[in-house]
Amino acid sequence: MAPPSQSYKSPSPSQPSGKGEVSDLKLQLRQLAGSRAPGTDDSKRDLFKKVISYMTVGIDVSSLFSEMVMCSATSDIVLKKMCYLYVGNYAKGNPDLALLTINFLQKDCRDEDPMIRGLALRSLCSLRVANLVEYLVGPLGSGLKDSSGYVRMVAAVGALKLYHISAATCVDADFPSMLKSLMLHDSDSQVVANCLSALQEIWSLEASSSEEASKEREALLSKPVIYYLLNRFKDFNEWAQCLVLDLVSKYVPSDSSDIFDIMNLLEDRLQHANGAVVLATVKVFLHMTLSMTDVHQQVYERIKAPLLTLVSSGSQEQSYAVLSHLHLLVMRAPMLFSSDYKHFYCQYNEPSHVKKLKLDMLTAVANENNTYEIVTELCEYVANVDVAIARESVRAVGKIALQQYDVNAIVDRLLQFLEMEKGYVTAEALVLVKDLLRKYPQWSQDCIAVVGNISSRNVQEPKAKAALIWMLGEYCQDMNDAPYVLENLIENWDDEHSAEVRLHLLTAVLKCFLKRPPETQKALGAALAAGLSDSHQDVHDRALLYYRLLQYNVSVADRVVNPPKQAVSVFTDTQNSEIKDRIFDEFNSLSVVYQKPSYMFTDKEHRGPFEFSEETGGLSVGVESVENIAQIVDANDKDLLLGTSEEEESRGTSSDGSAYSAPAYDSASISLTSSHAQSEPVISNPSLPTYSAQTSLAIDDLLGLSLSSSTTSVPPPPPLKLNAKAVIDPGTFQRKWGQLPIALTQECSISPQGAAALNSPQVLLQHMQGQSIHCIASGGKAPNFKFFFFAQNAEASASFFLVECIINTSSSKAQIKVKADDQSTADAFWNLFQLALTRFGSP
Amino acid sequence: MISQFFVLSLRGDNIVFRDYRGDVPKGSAEIFFRKVKFWKEDEEEEAPPNVDGVNYFHVKVAGLLFVATTRVNSSPSLVLELLQRIARVIKDYLGVLNEDSLRKNFVLVYELLDEVIDFGYVQTTSTELLKSYVFNEPIVVDAARLPPLGPAGMFMQGTKRMPATAVTKSVVANEPGGRRREEIFVDIIEKISVTFSSSGYILTSEIDGTIQMKSYLSGNPEIRLALNEELSIGRGGRSIYDYSSSAGAGVVILDDCNFHESVHLDSFDVDRTLSLVPPDGEFPVMNYRMTQEFKPPFIITAVIEEAGTFRAEVILKVRADFSSNITANTVAIQMPLPKYTTRVSFEQEPGAVGQTTDFKEANKKLEWNLRKAWFFQNF
């Protein structure tokens, strides 16, 4: 989709791509390198600028390395900075050349000006060249003891950089403990902050290998350290405050006065203009009070207003981030936000992901008092030009309806949606009306009246169509034309691409038939016939199941498809509460925005510090608090009916079907060449096909649809009886096929009707199975099909017949190879097989 | 903690690129830009994206994308706030923030970035503090030519503002003549959202406001900012839990507000005065939010009549509800039209001056711009 990046680039004059310019620069730099003339610095500046601009746009200027280093002997600080930047960028790729820079960087580290010392030290540590670490230790050590705060600040981060280049060097030089003492004693707050971040990173990386380090890491969370940092809190700048707050949020307070002290100290942070500070504070408050339910609630009340302010100030992106956090809180405790619902109203110019979150929240906070207004507002959104939002809004209305507040008014609204004559609105509304009816069957009269007026031709989306069909089946007694609508739909069976719709159609037409037999008989016959020849396995199986059910006993069929139903009281929640708690634990992080816990999107080594200790329980948030969360979430789950399980109905019936153990061939997965191997898992399935010969009804029978099972024509028992429940595992089949000689090779023709019906291998398989000839593998596409059949002599269980059958449907010819354990019965078997095959498709 | 920072133009060029930790592959800018391109087509924007374990944060400022990448699960508001701050610091230095000024001053920008972030950790974003570490002189770009980032950068979506030209001055550049002018700019920006029902009844109303300050004062004097004494925060006095109480006339009730860190609130509770030592550069002194009932400055009524099968007539009326000696500048009215709209003709009230009307084919929007608006106007 995207052309190479070059094509985005403007042909601006500052972006040459040729090598010519680079070698030009090289020459000019050389000339300037030795020059002492006045004004050199200015021309150097221009050249350096050019080099850096090339570097930015991605042109490789690393060939200038030595020239740049030669030019760097200057006292001009701007030049120095540009040179450092260049060196930092290319040193990693040119470790040998990087050695050249060490000298002047080390010299600069001893400069009088603290600024230059700091800069040089920062660049020195940023070289990222492993074999130069020995040169780092000295300057870093003196940097950490420097008199200037700026240099110490740089050195603290420098120690961390060193750790990343060579952990051993850093630890051996005892930098961690130096950092620790700096952190606890330095007068400069930024030095303290940098030491803290460096130590956090170093110790959590070390913790896995060294016990001492993990102790040190725990020590960061000890009361003295936390109190020390909190006492200096006002000195820190806002970013360092975030860092400290993050640490505090992991601190386990010793008692409740501890908690209140900390919260009192931090309360004014909630009024900070920086959203990061506010959210970090909120996290501290939330996590500290987890074990105190009432205080926890008060915290919610307290943080509400600041968060709402943050949402409305700041850039779009920031407000989305805050809104996601608010969303999380609303979902945890919807009742606490129920009076603030107006804040979650969407504005027309908000981007749709923001609207989606807001719709979610509106749905969650709905209760007896505000439902009417919320639903009114949502109905406005349904007319939104943004289709996705309009859909979401319909769904939101439906969800609220399922929450049991003021269903009366909502049902009316939903029914209005059905009449809005906008395809997507109707579609969403249909799905919801279906769910609604499953929960509140008492509304069926009103709903059915409206649903009956919807033309099925106007409904295209599979889900909506399935919902409509479900309702047609379920309430066919109340809808006069239900059988005829279904009949129409069945006529267009082949145009229906969604298997879900076809499954629903089968069920619905059967339900309808059981209630209104005379009107639906024809439709049912057509549906079962179409279902049996359907290429989708589930559809086919369900059709077969229904067919056999009907054949077995109509009243049983009635019990299966029309059991007395209980209204669904709770729809399953989509996201389990464990994940929700995980996300809550990771408050104020990306987890909240993505709505998934961090282990799902970050690599292990990049998880934040302390992540592991939380897992091992070394830093438990308190057992009682976990229970507390569970309670809250439980309570939420009861109120919130998020998510609706679409297929509950169909799952019920299909699990009934599994008792009949439908054959599980999948033509797509079995290719001609590797048929044996691939079919293995299918055949070795313990629930093997167990069809009796009796059920072998030719398809023509179905079309006539004689319902009483007595009319079934059973073929006369052949002289050779085959075991209807023959079993062979593919390995054995393969071995036998290899060992046995070919008993016969024959060619025979199949009936033209049969050839025509053979549009997929399954059709023949059913037919042959009816004759106790089972298939072990099949494959191919029209016009060429290949089958491996087997059969077992009912009298002699060790006697198997193996068949390879290649059918060409265009010439209606079949080539057959038969192998048999008992050669004497091969001819008898051939007769049977041929009979079975020729009968295929004949009326 | 962030791994990389870069600024992309809307065409996808890297204007500035800085790698802090070296743990994110080089092509990240391009990966990100492809994503953005993709959204633009779908009009579906999901922020922030995550590709191969790399999280991309971005903010859009003055037509530029400020992007940060990280591999850790960091706080989104922290990173976004940081990006916003970086943009502000750069603007403080350059005076004008746009592609052109960035390209001309990228060395200065690198210098700033070096001090703002070290190894992915934020050091400082205070223009004031940075001054002592930054040595490049800004190259001033002509501001008039390009739409600058107004102090209303926070409300960039859909609003066009005309900031005073003086505010586009760099905090470090000297006036021609060598003498610095002692100036301070205080802007009050309010975003008012009102929803009317079709019968003219106000459904929701909200004001989000901010007091922005940009100081060019030397010597950092303390400044006192007195607000309306009748101001109260949180409904019903100090209690924000009580939503039922109402206040008398003249009382301004803020639902909530927050303050910049330089603001001292010692006397705020007594006489509603903020005292602060303004740092250099632009910053919001205070953000506030109120849902108290107020008289909206404009009332818009729309009457739609179907005039035939393929024609509809819309009569838009705007009434300005403030005293006649105040005029509103640059009023723009937009109205989304159905997708299948092909042509729009306009008819203005006779005697209308300084008004333009336009139909934006691409996003099917009708625009009506008024340079000045005062009492009662019809369309």
UniProtKB/TrEMBL annotation, chain A:
SMART domains: B2-adapt-app_C (SM01020)
Keywords for this protein: Membrane, Protein transport, Transport
Chain intervals with Low complexity compositional bias: 1-20
Any one GO BP annotation for this protein: vesicle-mediated transport
Top-rank taxon, per record: Eukaryota
GO CC annotation, single: clathrin adaptor complex
Annotated Pfam families: Adaptin_N, B2-adapt-app_C
Single GO term (MF): clathrin binding
Region (Disordered): 1-23
Subcellular location: Endomembrane system
Main location group: membrane
Residue intervals of the Beta-adaptin appendage C-terminal subdomain domain: 720-838
Role description: Subunit of clathrin-associated adaptor protein complex that plays a role in protein sorting in the late-Golgi/trans-Golgi network (TGN) and/or endosomes. The AP complexes mediate both the recruitment of clathrin to membranes and the recognition of sorting signals within the cytosolic tails of transmembrane cargo molecules.
Subunit structure: Adaptor protein complexes are heterotetramers composed of two large adaptins (beta-type subunit and alpha-type or delta-type or epsilon-type or gamma-type subunit), a medium adaptin (mu-type subunit) and a small adaptin (sigma-type subunit).
Family per similarity comment: Belongs to the adaptor complexes large subunit family.
Protein name in the entry: Beta-adaptin-like protein
Naturally occurring in which organism (per UniProt): Stephania japonica
UniProtKB/TrEMBL annotation, chain B:
Annotated localization: Endomembrane system
Protein name: MHD domain-containing protein
Pfam (any one): Clat_adaptor_s
Residue ranges of domain MHD in the record: 181-379
CDD domains the record matches: AP4_Mu_N
Organism: Stephania japonica
Keywords: Membrane, Protein transport, Transport
GO BP: intracellular protein transport; vesicle-mediated transport
This protein's GO CC annotations: clathrin adaptor complex; endomembrane system
Keyword Glycoprotein carried by entry: no
